[in-house]
UniProtKB/TrEMBL annotation, chain A:
Single Gene Ontology BP annotation: intracellular protein transport
Record bears the keyword Membrane: yes
Family per record: Belongs to the adaptor complexes medium subunit family.
GO cellular component: clathrin adaptor complex; cytoplasmic vesicle membrane; Golgi apparatus
Subcellular location: Cytoplasmic vesicle membrane; Golgi apparatus
Record's keyword terms, sorted: Cytoplasmic vesicle, Golgi apparatus, Membrane, Protein transport, Transport
Protein name from the UniProt record: MHD domain-containing protein
A Pfam family of this chain: Adap_comp_sub
Family matches, as SUPFAM superfamilies: Second domain of Mu2 adaptin subunit (ap50) of ap2 adaptor (SSF49447), SNARE-like (SSF64356)
Coiled-coil ranges (or none): none
Residue ranges of domain MHD in the record: 175-422
CDD domains attached to this UniProt entry: AP3_Mu_N
Automatic annotation (TrEMBL), chain B:
UniProt GO molecular function: clathrin binding
SMART domains: Alpha_adaptinC2, ARM, B2-adapt-app_C
Acetylation as UniProt keyword: yes
Protein keywords: Acetylation, Membrane, Protein transport, Transport
Family: Belongs to the adaptor complexes large subunit family.
Annotated source species: Rotaria sordida
Residue span, Clathrin adaptor alpha/beta/gamma-adaptin appendage Ig-like subdomain domain: 724-834
Segments forming domain Beta-adaptin appendage C-terminal subdomain: 843-954
Main subcellular location: membrane
Membrane topology: Peripheral membrane protein
Entry GO CC: clathrin adaptor complex; cytoplasmic vesicle; endomembrane system
Gene3D superfamilies, per database record: 2.60.40.1150, Leucine-rich Repeat Variant (1.25.10.10), TATA-Binding Protein (3.30.310.10)
Name of the protein described by the UniProt record: AP complex subunit beta
Length: 423, 956
């Protein structure tokens, strides 16, 4: 089982440690540092590292490494999932999970770590229950603290062993609201000619539910058959989905991810954006660079926050580019060109008005002409459109008598760095 | 100094605060203590002061004290005792939270005195009315086991823990499973779980309601349950399949493990399996859109799954395409899986991708991509040309490391497709100078040597390499030596000088024994028997297999049992890397059905390394056949001889002797049998073996047996009844048996069942340590004595084996009934295969019954057990011949009458297991069709009997 945990920052300082069994010396981290030294990028450290007596499993997130120490055979995914869960928990408690927030809340962090694992076995991982046992640090707590001098609940969290461990039983709101965000992230590779090499959609339904009592919600889709590969939150009744294709559940309180789904590449998606590119190096240490971006199949919605990022070959010294819209910067050390375009309206279909960037590339003299053209990384967002076409038909609530406010929002976006165009 | 002062001051301050009267200050001080502890500062000096705080009745404070205690109790055992009373009191607290906390904390304190006091409260808590306490107590047993195993046995905690498996609360069940898994992980020799149907059923029920972590433990436990049969396996699969949609990737992968394991038991052609395949793909693909760490573990496991059941992901190629910003460890894994999924349908797409990758920045990845192109060429034959063209394009880029990798893989392509792409050699030669890595140089030298006759300036090229011989890597030196010898054999006239130079160099100026010995062998070969030398050095090389990089099948099967574990990440069985632990070897369940799953795996050689050795060994020792005929050559030979003798004198006298012996043995054989050493060895060794494995009388019986069959009916047959023996068929092909080919048949000799096999070694190494085992089967066939092969089986040698079987072993009904599952082991591997025992082998000689009994039995068997059939008398045998022929095979004719001008034969058969079969044959003279009807109490065998009749009647 998970024997110990070290939290290490990018500088290689293990500033937090927790041992669930016997104490493992901090020197075990040396094996991790060794692996770290071999890697160019911080995210390239292999997740599983074997040492003579232990195994180290690490995750890298928010510029922090969480390194778990194991002594025996255990499913690595179990550990990795668990480490991510710890990070989620810290984010939930402290608003963010950074070195500072952990250091500011040492005692709570320690108490939490002690509560979620017992002798290396998961004990309580549901945030709702943990929050009843260990109060998060907030202003209210401080006030209560002064009044009563005590902040810990001495009673057993009531619902912790019921069939719905994810929901406290005494939730009460003045304004009852339920919001559903359907977020779809496009993951795609497009080749030189504009052909889609691979594309897939990773979708989520993130909810913010503030409903009193024990509401029982049902979500109907117009086209549920689009979803065939789904991961459900434990609250969703699987049978109901299988038989009727509706999502039926008693929701946790607050923010949570109801389902995540994956729409495969077989039925290629319509890309909402296209890029025309013309990049050419010439003998004599220079080159031409020109990009034009335009919307495509966006159902009349405009593309927002469009950013194109491009890592130039090492032999590029500098670029002098002028965009027709937005701002562009080039970092000559990291060789990264960023063109922040902003919003592209669908009305500007006329190619003359499409955002364009053009200019010259200056190569380092004496260096050979680069072999290949750089890859473009695009990110954008489209509001009120789910690119897969999935739509919620209706949301119903049973079990309570009040009338809640319900809202569904659609967003199509790109996971960071996952939309690539080869040039 | 100042630092120590300030530290002391800090501790002192905390001490004062801890002893303060104000609860608030105490708490703040405690928090500071915990904070210091968290960052690894030593605050153990404060132990007595912290213990004092325990008395206060405040949960938050109590928890802080407990946190401290867990960390430092070990260093201060004497002081820790002081806390025992408080623990005892808390274990009886009305609040379940406090009861649980107390027992949990006590379990974490590894101090003997405390552990002693833990037993009673723990026993109580295991039976506590509150499930929260019970689930905490369950984990506590595992902790106690970690501290003191004996105590757990003595106090009967293990049984109490097992009882919790039937608890009404799923969380308690899950924790009990987790605790038991932990214990069995520590002591695999103890049977911790009694996994039986009802227990598994309870676990499956708990699975639906417990936490995600509990689900992982339960699924991992279920994976160890051996299902009773395919129905059992199928129903468990059905119940756990919904877990594939779980958001937690660990749950998903554990589910996949159980499914992959139980799939073994289910008919692969059934609709159920096809459906399951469809359900398995999406969750695996989904794992690839998660965090990179999860992707990595998922990819390592997908790699195993693809090797075992490639159908599952055959349509998902695109998800494995690499993004340039994937972490390197994800990139490399994706690439590997891409190659495994490559086939002629998607090769175009894959090649385009690989070419794209080969222009990336990351050198390691680019190298792997180039290698991957080579693997594609070897794997997908129709696309080989395109792959070669792609490689040529890449070589034209002149990027140094790309060129080197390309040359290494082109060598492999030449090995796979000889005489097809040699036109590109010229392009390769252009890049000779840029090669600086040993592997690339060695590959290039191999190519030059292998195709020396087509490269005009081969001698110049090789000579160029020879100049810096001493500075070369060992691999390159060996390759260069062989290449020059090859060149010499192909172009003897121009290259004498070169070969002498290299031989002198390796025999006199090198310290490497491998190199020196190889040099001597070549030298001796060239000088004594040039013909043999040519046959050996220029021998046709075995083609390299397309799947050299597949895992070895038994290892793969073992790893499939460990999907999701560290073993699956390392692709090594756990016992090879989990330190100091005895691990039960896990095996995939064995399906009692028709053909087994090993069919798709064709591994001749398991890795590149081995191939390299193969090449070398086939090159060892070698010469020219037209050596004598060429005038100038005799010159060379004498020079060589002289030099050789010269060297012999120079080196110590022991070496030449050794060499002499070795060489003469190889050459002796070669000269006798013209390069094929094996037939002779075969005859030498096989005879004694034959005698050993067969009982003495059997050799004679063999002869008679054959005579009987050929001469047909009458006379001798009764004295030594031998039944029809089918020709041997191949049971294990050399491909599946890693070079061991087994063909066999069954015979009945001297009223004994004999399994007759030929073992042929088609590999390049000798085999030994043979053993054979039969799985339980319908007729309880087991070997009378173990398989005995005393001498090793040499390459190309065949030995006949006769194994007498008896029929009183354990019985298990097979489908078909006569199916026999055999496992044969040798020093290389274990091979499993199925064969069919012809049923007539199981007819016993004393199956005759008298007429009355026959009549009685015929009437006793119900009418609907009668099976009718039209037999064809193909050979148009007379009734006497027919009768005799059947008699030979222990089909006894009880009586023969004529009814309505039709000959009626009444016959009986008795099987080894005592089952009687009654048969009536109605023969119309002049008509070849025989009306056959059969009655038996066990109608399952009827069809087999009909087949036996047809077989016997059609035999000559």
């Amino acid at each position: 089982m998970i024997h110990s945990l070290f939290i290490i920052n990018e500088a290689g300082d293990a500033f937090m440690e927790k041992h669930w069994k016997t104490v493992v010396s901090k020197s075990i981290c040396d094996y991790f540092y060794e692996a770290q030294k071999k890697c160019v990028n911080p995210e390239d450290i292999p997740p599983v590292i074997a040492t003579p007596h232990h195994y180290l499993i690490n995750i890298y997130r928010n510029n922090l490494y969480f390194v778990a120490v194991l002594t025996n055979e255990i499913a690595p995914l179990f550990v990795i999932e668990f480490l991510h869960r710890i990070m989620d928990l810290f984010e939930n408690y402290f608003g963010e999970c950074t070195e500072k927030s952990v250091k500011d809340n040492y005692v709570i962090v320690y108490e939490l770590l002690d509560e979620i694992l017992d002798s290396g076995l998961p004990l309580i991982t549901e945030t709702n229950i943990l929050k009843e046992l260990i109060k998060p640090p907030n202003l209210l707590r401080k006030v209560a603290h002064f009044v009563t001098g005590d902040s810990t609940n001495t009673t057993l969290p009531s619902k912790q062993l019921s069939n719905i461990p994810w929901r406290p039983f005494d939730v009460s709101y003045r304004n009852n609201e339920a919001f559903f965000d359907i977020v779809e992230e496009i993951d795609a590779i497009i080749d030189q000619n504009g052909t889609i090499v691979m594309s897939e959609i990773q979708g989520y339904i993130d909810c913010c539910i503030k409903l009193s009592g024990m509401p029982d919600l049902t979500l109907n889709f117009v086209n549920p058959r689009l979803l065939d590969d789904i991961s459900f939150h434990p609250c969703v009744r699987l049978r109901k989905w299988e038989s009727e294709h509706v999502l039926s559940f008693i929701p946790p309180d607050g923010n949570f991810r109801l389902i995540s789904y994956h729409i495969a590449t077989q039925n290629t998606i319509c890309m909402p954006i296209y890029v025309k590119h013309h990049i050419q190096y010439r003998e004599g240490s220079s080159g031409r660079f020109e990009l034009t971006v335009g919307p495509k199949q966006t159902m009349g919605k405009s593309l927002e926050n469009v950013i194109i990022e491009c890592t130039m070959p090492k032999s590029v010294l500098n670029c002098t580019l002028t965009p027709s819209q937005g701002k562009s910067t080039f970092d000559p050390i990291k060789k990264i060109l960023i063109w922040n375009i902003g919003t592209i309206e669908t009305k500007t279909q006329n190619s003359a008005h499409l955002p364009t960037i053009r200019g010259n590339i200056i190569l380092v003299t004496g260096q050979p002409i680069p072999e290949s053209n750089p890859i473009l990384n695009i990110s954008f967002q489209i509001n009120q459109l789910a690119i897969s076409g999935i739509r919620v038909q209706r949301v119903d609530m049973n079990g309570e008598i009040y009338k809640p406010y319900k809202g569904v929002k659609y967003i199509t976006t790109v996971k960071k760095g996952r939309f690539q165009i080869r040039t | 100094m100042a630092e120590i002062e300030s530290k002391k001051g800090e501790i002192y301050e905390l001490k004062a605060e801890l002893n303060s009267d104000k609860r608030e200050r105490k708490k703040e001080a405690l928090k500071k203590v915990i904070a210091s502890m968290t960052v690894g500062k030593d605050v153990s000096q404060l132990f007595p002061d912290v213990i004092n705080c325990m008395q206060i009745d405040n949960l938050e404070l109590k928890k802080l004290v407990y946190l401290y205690l867990m960390n430092y109790a070990k260093t201060q055992p004497e002081m820790a005792i002081l806390a025992v009373n408080t623990f005892a009191k808390d274990c009886n607290d009305p609040s379940p939270l406090i009861r649980a906390l107390a027992v949990r904390t006590m379990g974490c304190i590894r101090v003997d005195k405390i552990t002693e006091h833990l037993c009673e409260p723990l026993r109580k808590c295991l039976k506590d009315e509150d499930p929260y306490v019970r689930k905490t107590a369950a984990v506590c047993v595992a902790k106690l086991y970690d501290i003191n195993q004996q105590l757990v046995f003595d106090q009967g905690f293990l049984d109490l823990l097992k009882d919790l498996l039937s608890d009404s609360n799923p969380m308690v069940v899950a924790n009990a499973v987790a605790a038991l898994s932990e214990i069995s992980e520590q002591s695999p020799q103890i049977q911790v779980f009694d996994l039986n149907g009802p227990t598994v059923n309870k676990l499956l029920t708990a699975l639906n309601e417990c936490s995600e972590w509990g689900q992982v433990f339960i699924l991992d436990t279920i994976a160890n349950y051996p299902p009773k049969d395919d129905k059992d396996a199928q129903s468990i699969c059905e119940r756990i399949t919904p877990r594939l949609a779980h958001a937690n990737s660990a749950v998903v992968l554990s589910t996949v493990k159980v499914l992959m394991k139980f799939l073994e038991l289910i008919d692969p052609n059934s609709e159920f399996v096809q459906n399951l395949y469809r359900k398995l793909a999406p969750p695996l693909v989904t794992l690839l859109s998660t965090e990179p760490e999860i992707q990595y573990v998922a990819l390592r496991n997908i790699n195993l799954i693809v090797q075992k059941r490639s159908d599952i992901l055959k349509n998902e190629m695109k998800v494995f395409f690499v993004k340039y910003n994937d972490p390197i460890y994800v990139k490399l894994e994706k690439l590997d899986i891409m190659i495994r999924l490559t086939n002629s349908n998607n090769i175009a797409q894959v090649l385009a991708e690989l070419k794209e990758y080969a222009t990336e920045v990351d050198v390691d990845f680019v190298r792997k991509a180039v290698r991957a192109i080579g693997r594609c060429a070897i794997k997908v034959e129709p696309a080989a040309e395109r792959c070669v063209n792609t490689l040529i394009d890449l070589i034209q880029t002149k990027v140094n490391y790309v060129v080197q990798e390309a040359i290494v893989v082109i060598k492999d392509i030449f090995r796979k497709y000889p005489n097809k792409y040699e036109s590109i050699i010229a392009i390769l030669c252009e890049n000779l100078d840029s090669l600086d890595e040993p592997e690339a140089r060695a590959s290039m030298i191999w190519i030059v040597g292998e195709y020396a006759e087509r490269i005009d300036n081969a001698d110049e090229l090789l000579e160029g390499f020879l100049d810096g011989f001493k500075d070369e890597n060992n691999q390159v030196q060996l390759q260069l030596l062989t290449a020059i010898v090859k060149l010499f054999l192909k172009k003897p006239t121009e290259t004498q000088e070169l070969v002498t130079k290299v031989l002198t160099l390796v025999t006199q100026e090198t310290d490497n024994p491998d190199l020196r010995d190889r040099g001597y062998i070549y030298w001796r070969l060239l000088s004594t028997d040039p013909k043999a030398a040519k046959e050996v050095v220029l021998a046709e090389k075995p083609l390299i297999s397309e799947e050299t990089d597949l895992l070895e099948p038994t290892l793969l099967d073992e790893l499939i049992c460990h999907i999701g574990s560290l073993a699956s990440v390392y692709h090594k069985p756990p016992n090879t890397f989990v330190e100091g632990r005895f691990i039960m070897k896990k095996k995939l369940p064995f399906r009692t059905g028709i053909h087994h799953e090993y069919e798709d795996i064709t591994t001749m050689q398991t890795n590149q390394q081995q191939q390299q050795q193969v090449v070398i060994s086939s090159n060892v020792g070698s010469l020219i056949d037209d050596f004598d005929m060429l005038g100038p050559m005799s010159n060379t030979s004498s020079t060589t001889m002289n030099t050789f003798e010269h060297t012999q004198q120079q080196t110590s006298s022991a070496i030449p002797n050794l060499l002499d012996d070795e060489l003469s043995s190889i050459l002796g054989l070669d000269s006798n049998v013209g390069g094929h050493q094996t037939p002779m060895m075969n005859t030498n060794t096989s005879l004694p073996i034959n005698r050993l494995t067969t009982s003495t009388g059997n050799d004679l019986d063999d002869l008679f047996g054959d005579i009987n069959l050929h001469t047909g009916p009458s006379s001798i047959s009764f004295s030594s009844p031998n039944t029809l023996v089918l020709p041997k068929e191949i049971w294990v092909s050399a491909q599946k048996g890693k070079g061991l080919e087994i063909s066999g048949t069954f015979a009945r000799r001297n009223n004994q069942i004999v399994m007759e096999m030929d073992f042929t070694n088609k590999a390049l190494q000798s085999m030994n340590d043979f053993a054979l085992q039969l799985n339980r089967n319908s007729f309880g066939l087991t070997p009378l004595q173990p398989l005995q092969i005393l001498n090793p089986l040499f390459p190309n040698q065949t030995i006949p084996i006769q194994l007498i079987l008896n029929a009183n072993g354990p019985i298990m009904k097979m489908d078909p009934l006569t199916n026999l599952q055999i496992a044969i082991k040798n020093n290389i591997d274990i091979f499993y295969f199925n064969c069919i025992v012809p049923i007539h082998i199981l007819f016993v000689h004393n199956g005759e019954i008298d007429k009355m009994t026959f009549l009685q039995t015929w009437q006793d068997i119900p009418e609907n057990n009668e099976i009718k059939y039209q037999l064809q008398n193909i050979n148009n045998l007379s009734i006497d011949d027919l009768q005799n022929k059947l008699r030979l095979n222990n089909i006894h004719t009880i009586t023969r009458t004529i009814i309505e001008q039709k000959e009626m034969l009444y016959q009986t058969i008795k099987l080894t297991n005592g089952i009687f079969i009654l048969i009536e044959l109605k023969i119309t003279p002049g008509n070849r069709t025989i009306a056959f009807s059969l009655k038996t109490k066990v109608p399952d065998v009827a069809n087999l009997i009909i087949q036996a009749y047809e077989l016997i009647l059609s035999s000559n």
